[in-house]
Amino acid sequence: MAAKPILWMVIPCYNEEEVLPVTAPMFLGKLDALVKSGRVSASSRVLFVNDGSKDRTWGLITELSRKDPRVLGICLSRNRGHQNAVLAGLMEAMDRCDITISIDCDGQDDVNAMDEMVDAYLDGCEVVYGVRAKRDTDTWFKRTTAQGFYKLLNGLGAEVVYNHADYRLVSSLVLRHFADFGEVNIFLRGMFPLVGFKSTCVYYDRAERLAGKSHYPLSKMLGLAFNGITSLSVKPISIITGMGIFFSALGVLGTLWAIIQVFLRHTVHGWASLFCVVCLLGGIQLISLGVIGQYVGKTYMESKRRPRYIISERTWSKPGRRWIEEREAENKK
What we know:
Layout: E1 7-13, H1 20-36, E2 45-50, H2 57-67, E3 71-76, H3 82-93, E4 99-102, H4 113-122, E5 127-132, H5 140-155, E6 164-171, H6 172-178, H7 188-195, E7 199-204, H8 218-232, H9 235-263, H10 272-304, E8 311-314, H11 320-332
Parallel strand pairs: 1-2, 1-4, 2-3, 5-7
Antiparallel strand pairs: 3-8, 4-6, 5-6
Helix pairs in contact: 9-10
């Protein structure tokens, strides 16, 4: 009989002191249910990743880990953003488990979908994407822009799963290959499909946030969207090139037309048409420079090869300074 897979739930947290006491028992309850059903090993764990929170989130995580050995936590040295926090948890879990399931801390994603995810893994899938069946809980604006974003990404050639965020099961086999991806600018929902392996989708209904408030305002959502586009596709550069060729050709035709009008003495002095043309072309040029600048900036940041995250503490080991001090004390004896 094959051994039951060890599961680690990876849960990024940023200023979640209000919702963590509500959702932590929910995650542990689901872990219990998965163990009792025989789907996963009793050695499975819940890993919370503190993404440089400014409130009591890390204190709550350490308290939970003291009360329950199944709860583990890592603390990033500063806020690195949701994607890097998820990545940190996945890389930490990679060599300690067989499968990981990443899920947000707010309780909106249905934990019961984990049953189908694990079943799909046991049937041979290495990646299982949690996909929202519908977006009824979203406002019209958020629903429209989110769906438009997925369509835009696919239109630009980026391979993303429609209506999938960061609720997914990934095997340790996939994670070991994913570790070879060295990008600093990461967009996980578009990068995992690039790894390949057998995958499938599990559909679920998303609920309202259980407590606290969202930490993803419109500005962060737009930033994530633009980062996803520029990280996964170079088609915007091709679009700019096409626009440049089109308007250059249009400019040549306009110049020929103007010369002909001069010879025919049909010229009329005016500023409105010139003003509109200058504004249009000036706006297009500035937007084009901005998009190109984003790609140049990303290339610059990639060339630095800075670490994507730094782990300052782990609940299962002593902080580095204390460990060094104790080692030095032992050496003096």
